[in-house]
Design a protein that fits this description.
By secondary structure, the chain is mostly beta strands. It has a domain at 10-106 and 229-240 and 254-474. Helices cover 7% and strands 41% of the residues. The chain contains five helices and 36 strands. The strands form nine sheets. Strands 2, 31, 32, 33, 34 and 35 form a six-stranded antiparallel β-sheet that branches.
């Protein structure tokens, strides 16, 4: 009898990839659009253990970079670990070296005191979340303000970049926003202290100097992974997953375990002017949680904010590796596509559900970021193989409220990125790129879909299974 069982299941996506390789031309099925050319860079964890130590959370693994080069109808591939100080120290000692999102190294009391006295907090520079362009290369980034530069062609690590300013802050959002008109990158830096602050900062092109735009005092800072921008504003969404600053500064537990869900605080939206830094308004809504914003834009004086919203913060613990790798894992919480409208003169934000589909790891066409738009893309969950996350790609027609879906047997896709066809006038005239884990073949492939129809155009087969990652970019 023919054995049609998959060679592996989704757990392969949480398995260490120790192999670094470079392939000039991947096996290709289908045909790439003749106009498609550029480089897709991806970031995410590549190693989930060091010697006898194991990381506790999906967000903790040591960063690995992946490069898919598309040219002349062919796709090349390379992958390398990011040689951050956290990685190098782990290699040297054979143990987990730095505190991560949900993992603390097993240090003795003497070692912990030594780190404190030396001025080292132990916070990690393991930049495994996002990628941003910088000068003639790129920055790998995470939620600590220690970006790591690397070469986009060779993936060679260039080192941690120190900011050229005296701004204080221990936490930053992993997702920055670039403003073409102002030729600057915006971010949010959180300063912990007796009075903690959300600090909106801007960094002019080609510099590492953070200019303070606005400072918002807060008693208990929220966990912030992302924020939104429009043409004129920065929008910070403050969820009620919060931390007492002193507990975090002198923590004895992993970073995220210091945070507490306090739904009675509700959710707050802080709107800050990009120019001048004035607080244009603070709005309120019932408690919810989100990792990712989808998009935001101005409709007259009203701000429209779209977000992948969870009922509460249980999704954070759902991504613990003990759960994800269990023989019977706990189902993963599912987000929904919500729209909040922030209107001057109204304290409460209006809310509307656009779609029940999760649209996690969301993206929109780059040219539509911060502007009115028609389509959003992301991953959704249908609950296969005991894991209820990320087994489908979705396209949301934001105006028409319709949803198109791509699925394949044994396939687990990652973040989809839209690449528009040169000269196109329609917003969805282009392709979607997503790195997919194929459990039937125990390998991954770069999937190319027609963005209009979600029909497959091509797939380039990688030489190994690529662990589930987070974010990337195409240039």
């Amino acid at each position: 009898m023919l054995d049609i069982r998959p060679k592996a299941d989704y757990r392969l996506g949480f398995t260490t990839l120790d192999r670094e390789t470079e392939v000039a031309a991947l096996p290709l099925q289908g045909t790439l659009p003749s106009w498609l050319a550029g480089t897709l860079l991806r970031n995410g964890p590549g190693r989930f253990e060091v010697g006898p130590d194991r990381y506790r959370h999906w967000f903790d693994g040591l960063a690995m970079l992946h490069r898919f080069g598309i040219a002349d109808g062919s796709v090349s591939y390379a992958n390398r670990f990011l040689r951050s100080p956290a990685y190098l120290e782990a290699e040297r000692t054979g143990r987990i070296a730095c505190s991560e999102f949900d993992t603390d190294p097993k240090r003795s009391l003497v070692e912990r005191l030594g780190h404190k006295l030396s001025g080292r907090s132990g916070a990690s520079d393991n930049a495994n979340v996002t990628i941003a362009p910088f000068r003639d290369g790129y920055l790998a980034m995470t939620e600590t303000p220690a970006p790591v530069a690397f070469d986009g062609t060779t993936l060679e690590t260039r080192g941690v970049l120190a900011y050229d300013d005296d701004l204080a802050g221990q936490i930053t959002t992993a997702h920055t926003h670039y403003d073409r008109e102002r030729r600057a990158t915006f971010n949010v830096l959180i300063q912990l202290g007796r009075t903690s602050r959300y600090q909106v900062v801007r960094i002019a092109d080609g510099t590492l100097r953070r200019e303070l735009v606005a400072s918002i005092p807060v008693d208990k800072p929220a966990y912030l992974h992302a924020f939104s921008t429009t043409a004129r504003y920065v929008v910070i969404v403050e969820y009620p997953l919060v931390v007492a600053p002193l507990e975090l500064m002198f923590r004895r537990k992993p970073f995220i375990e210091n945070y507490r869900w306090e739904p009675g605080r509700g959710t707050r939206f802080h709107v800050v002017a990009k120019d001048g830094g004035a607080l244009a308004g603070t709005y309120e809504a019932d408690a919810f949680f989100a990792f990712h914003h989808i998009n935001a834009y101005e409709d007259g004086d009203t701000i429209v904010l779209d977000i992948s919203a969870y009922a509460d913060a249980t999704i954070v613990s759902d991504f613990k590796l003990d759960n994800l790798l269990a023989s019977e894992p706990k189902p993963i919480a599912r987000a929904e596509f919500r729209r909040y409208r922030l209107q001057p003169g109204k304290r409460a934000a209006d809310v509307e559900r656009i779609a029940v589909e999760a649209t996690e790891l969301p993206s929109v066409a780059r040219e539509r970021t911060g502007k009115p738009y028609g389509y959003a893309y992301g991953v959704d969950a249908a609950g296969r193989d005991g894991w209820s996350a990320f087994d489908a790609l979705v396209k949301i027609d934001v105006r028409g409220r319709s949803v198109a879906t791509w699925r394949a047997p044994g396939a687990y896709p990652g973040e989809p990125l839209f690449v528009g066809r040169p000269g196109a006038t329609d917003e969805d005239d282009g392709v979607l790129l997503s790195v997919v884990l194929d459990t039937n073949e125990a390998a991954s492939y770069l999937l190319v879909l027609d963005a209009r129809t979600l029909e497959e155009r091509a797939r380039a087969i990688a030489p190994h299974a690529i662990p589930f990652g987070f974010h990337g970019l195409f240039r």
